[in-house]
Structures are given as structure tokens and as C-alpha cells.
């Protein structure tokens, strides 16, 4: 955050790489939408109102489609393109975007404010992006919208910001992001996996909790409070123990990743 003229300005940046964040040959209009949306989701987790974006674009043969999708998402959320840069290079193709937002509530929510005794909630669902990715990858023709064009929860984040003790978006998997909130806050979260709202078949629940790319909002509030947005209580914050995360009171298995991690 940067304080300018009495306003707290939230700055975030995300990079997307072909073959990691989107499928080779995928419609670049959808890639443009996703690039902006994932950054706006970071602003949502801060309860921020978007000011504008700066684009770092690697040129390619389908730039016209990229520009079309960029116009779609910027228009949909009323966000101006403030500038940026274009380069040649690749493969793989790499794109970056910086988003700026104005905090609507102080203090600005972070992932480090969760305290023992509080309730853990989630606004949104997990699993839809996983199902959309598989449909797109396998060419089944089933709905892939959640993977191609995620919807940042900007309005919900702004309404939640005044009451949460901690908040972040779910981008790399709910379990992993819960563990990250715990590490930042110095607490443990005891999650009730069966309570989590999923947009996937029940037999894929374990996968949905780890897959990511859903951009739900994970937050903690005092136990007597009710969120002002549709949300589901999914656990509680307890004093820090040996494990950052518990699933119904038991640490998750060590041999199963909690979510998506970039590795060298």
C-alpha cells in the first residue's frame, strides 16, 4: 500500500505464462480477461476500488483477439488502461499486469490479522475452474467459463472489508491459501472440508479444495458476526499448534500437496 493525498493506494501485480496459466492455443480474448480479473481479485481481497491497470504485453499473432478481450473486461468493470509496454519474445508467451486500487476501508485487510476464536468464512465456491479447465483441455464442450473468464468479487470485498480481521483471495487452492493465512497470522485454522461450497461433483471435493483459480474470498471475523454478503462458514481459528492447517481436527497428509506451488 502507498499513501497518496490521504488515500491508501493498493498496488498488485500478476504474471501469466502460456502453458502454466492458460492452455497453448487458447483464445487470447479469454487470456486478456483472466489477466485483468486475477489482478482485480487481489484488489477485492483488500476491499479496494480499482483505479486503473498497466499492461506488460508480449506480442503475438493473435493480438487482435487479446485487445478485444481486454476491452471486454475493462468495460465490464469500468477500469481504465493507464499505460504499459509491449515486447517481442518467447515462447512461452508471458504477460504481466499491474492494478491500482483505492482502499475503501481502513485499516486495509491483510492475511495477517486472524486471531484464535474467530470464525473462518468463504464467499464464493471452489472447483468450478478445475472443471472448466478439464472441459477446455479435453474439448468436451462443457462449461469452461469459470476457468476462462473468472469473476473478481470486488463488490463483496468492499462490503466485507470493514468487518474482517483477515482476508485474501483463493487463487492457488483453498487449503494452501488457508495455510498461508495461518502462517501470516501465527495461528492455526481448523477447516471443515464438508462445509466448503464446491462447484464440482462431490467425489471431486478433495481435488476442488486444492486446485485453485477460483478467486473466492477467504476471511475471518468475530464468531458472533454475520457477513453482509452470501458466504459459508467453513472453520474456526485456533491457537497455533504443530500444524498450520487442520482438517476436522487432523493435519492433512504430508504426501498430498495443499495447492499449486510454482517451483524452479
Key features of this structure:
single chain, 264 residues, six-stranded mixed β-sheet, five-stranded mixed β-sheet, 11 strands, 28% helix, 28% strand, globular
Question: What does the model show?
Answer:
This protein has seven helices and eleven strands. The longest helix has 17 residues, at 28-44. By secondary structure, it is α+β, with helices and mostly antiparallel strands. The chain is globular, with a radius of gyration of 18 Å. Strand 1 and strand 2 form a beta hairpin. The strands form two sheets. It has a six-stranded mixed beta sheet with strand order 7-9-6-10-8-11, sandwiched between helices. Strands 1-2-5-3-4 form a five-stranded mixed beta sheet, covered by helices on one side. 28% of the residues lie in helices and 28% in strands.
